[in-house]
Amino acid sequence: MDEIAFSAKYKDWISIKKMGKGYSSLAEIFGGIKQGEVREILLSASSEQLLPIAEAYFMRKLITGVGYELETGTEMLSKIYPELKLPKPKGRFGKGKG
Length: 98
Description:
- By secondary structure, the protein is α+β, with helices and mostly antiparallel strands.
- It has a domain at 1-21 and 71-86.
- It is built from four helices and two strands; from the N terminus they run ββαααα.
- It has helices at 24-31, 37-45, 51-66, 74-80, and strands at residues 4-10, 13-19.
- It has a two-stranded antiparallel ribbon.
- The chain is elongated.
């Protein structure tokens, strides 16, 4: 089965994401990187103090660049789980795209 499921719970919110994409492209990317190579490049562009932030930014850009979404919202959850009836936000909103 080629599916990854992510879930997170924060207070009363539960977020679940299923992805049917293959993760072989991520494995290929990480397989082609030499050990310490990313660290050296990031250190040349920043400092030791900023390295954790640079690494997190690099990982986020890499994963989103491959096509994975890291943030789930009510719209995405509604598409994945149409049986869930998520409450709509109160207020006046203009018509969205689509």
